[in-house]
From TrEMBL:
Subcellular location: Cell membrane
Protein name: DNA internalization-related competence protein ComEC/Rec2
InterPro entries, A to Z: ComA-like_MBL, ComEC_N, Competence_ComEC/Rec2, Competence_DNA_uptake, DUF4131, Metallo-B-lactamas, RibonucZ/Hydroxyglut_hydro
Transmembrane annotation, as ranges: 38-57, 230-250, 256-281, 301-321, 327-347, 359-378, 390-408, 415-436, 448-466
UniProt cross-references to Pfam families, sorted A to Z: Competence (PF03772), DUF4131 (PF13567), Lactamase_B (PF00753)
Membrane-related topology note: Multi-pass membrane protein
Coiled coil feature spans: none
Sequence ranges assigned to domain Metallo-beta-lactamase in this UniProt record: 500-681
Gene3D superfamilies to which the protein is assigned, alphabetical: Ribonuclease Z/Hydroxyacylglutathione hydrolase-like
Keyword annotations: Cell membrane, Membrane, Transmembrane, Transmembrane helix
Taxonomic placement: Bacteria, Pseudomonadati, Pseudomonadota, Gammaproteobacteria, Pseudomonadales
Amino acid sequence: MRTGMFALALGLLCLGFLPVLPSVGWLLVLLLGAVASLFTRLWPLGCFVLGLCWACWSAQHALDDRLAPGLDGRTVWLEGRVAGLPSRTAQGVRFELEQAASRRGALPRRLQLSWYDGPPLRAGEHWRLAVTLQRPAGLLNPHGPDREAQLLARRIGATGTVKAGQVLSAVAGGWRDELRQRLLAVDANGRQAALVALVLGDGGGLAREDWQTLQATGTVHLLVISGQHIGLVAGLLYGLVAGLARWGLWPARLPWLPWACGLAMAAALAYGWLAGAGVPVQRACLMLAVVLLWRLRFRHLGAMLPLLLALVAVLLVEPLAGLLPGLWLSFSAVAILIYCFGARLGGWRPWQAWTRAQWVIAIGLLPVLLATGLPVSLSAPLANLLAVPWVSLAVLPLALLGTLLLPLPGFGEALLWLAGGLLDVLFRVLAVVAGWRPAWVPPALPLWAWALVGVAALLVLLPRGVPMRGLGGVMLLALWVPREPVAAGQVEVWQLDVGQGLAVLLRTRHHSLLYDAGPAKGEYDLGERVVLPTLRKLGVGSLDLMLISHAHADHAGGAGAIHRGLPVRRMLGGEALEGLALQPCVSGEQWEWDGVRFSLWRWAEGQSSNDRSCVLLVEAQGERLLLAGDMEAGAERSWLAAHGATRIDWLQSPHHGSRSSSTEAFIRATAPRGVLISRGRNNSFGHPHAQVVERYRRHGLAIHDTAVEGALRLVLGAQGAVEGVRGQRRFWRGGE
């Protein structure tokens, strides 16, 4: 049985590694072969193929439900029902729409929409909206999150921005929204949003600083309803029945164990219903159901079997769950605890078991965090040592009981006030811990080094006295394996995918330079969210130079976050920036790093900010790259006057391919063989302009576009081609 379940689980999990999905014909062939093999010695292989076929069929169904390419980027009027709890942000409101319909064509069953400065929305309302729709996509950078996969796993068929709308019908079934408004109205020591997250699973109201504190201390799971919360509520009911039975207070005619399991499951389902029954909650309830069934009938089969059964059950219900890091983290955490606490000789006191559980989880999840690209919280064992019992045994029971007693004047509010006060104390302590030990974003590891870390974690977690256990600590040094150095005389260039903005990393053998830092608008700072984590994952621990072409927010917005997050030896800029001491860009300045020559140029007489862009020319073994910022036609003419017909091999498309740049004379004189465009999909500026693209093609330039290919990589000096991250094929990735 275990072998078959394990093979089935592997087949279901293989989905996330497929470059393409098999056709319907191949699926039928595989399915027939799998069924036939079930009656032979190859039956485990048949189970594997059955799982793979089911996962592929489900994934194809989700892909077929995505927005039609003909509607991508178009604004259409549609009608639909608001699903779940809309999240209010600093910019507006974000919500999901179900049952969407439009006369322009068929729409996906579920849309994720943003309405900047939009009115308050409530769950269950029917709206008529003018929406600019987009096919599911997201920024794609090396070793970064894949938003397209996350949207597919949640079966979001399209995203969009609301331009206008009107409500068609009153709220139907919006009791969760009403409860949220009631919770936000109580006095909870300023922690009303945290109570809403804990009770209803809606973390949209949490402040950005609170999320950063939770992430830095590895305690996000405490404010996002997960298996821990579901298990706690179920455990409280189970423990109550078991205690009454032990003390002789449970009715003798009722068998206590079935009742304990039944009431525990009922409590978990009620809490899950209260929390909106999202995918993580469904996963937790399925896991709990399997565990309770094992407790009733199958304890003799060992503790790993219910975990395996729960994994298979979750993946059979939603095969796309394997695309989300949450599934890997939750099941890995339980497996690690079973591995470390099961079948050990001797006993531990409760406080010993609790303290050991924290460092066991920290070490055991390290390979999973590395594989999923998530930050590693160095303070998580200490923070969770306090935070988990604080929330589980004090805050959560008070919050749920206070919510239940809200109809009784005074009682519910008092309990929620106390729960909020306890949460406020917790956040203050966690903020201190986060400042002491912030989260660590480790450099991405090659496969062999990651495998060493995985083996090392298993060895370290072996019981004391087992041979080779000490070797695990030595093998953990693979975490700091040096990256493969750039060859002398060459420079590795990464044009990051930052949407409508620019950020380019250049690395020689011993030096790093960042040209522009990505866009920022309000709290939406891609320098902090994208550029800085990507630099760390690429192994950049410091910058020798940060060069900001000019002061526009799409180029300079992230500079502050980069400066705060990394040591920067020198900063240059084409224009002054508020809050940063930039040295002025001086035309003619040159330097050499590791055999690579760099030179600056700036049109001092430029009338606009774009034309005052600081331009960087990089030359490696005769191959040239020009980073042109946002310079326009006037600056291009001035460049040609100063440099003549200097051949450029690779050109960063000036001003994102705007019609005011990339003039015929400039392209003809520099004669590049390729152009690198950085822009956002379906951007409102129309970049790159059709005339500019046609000009590039007429001159035979290879066009590389971050909106289509993701982040772009080029090794200057190797005379090679440009590679896009999206070239690493996955079945859910598509171009424009």
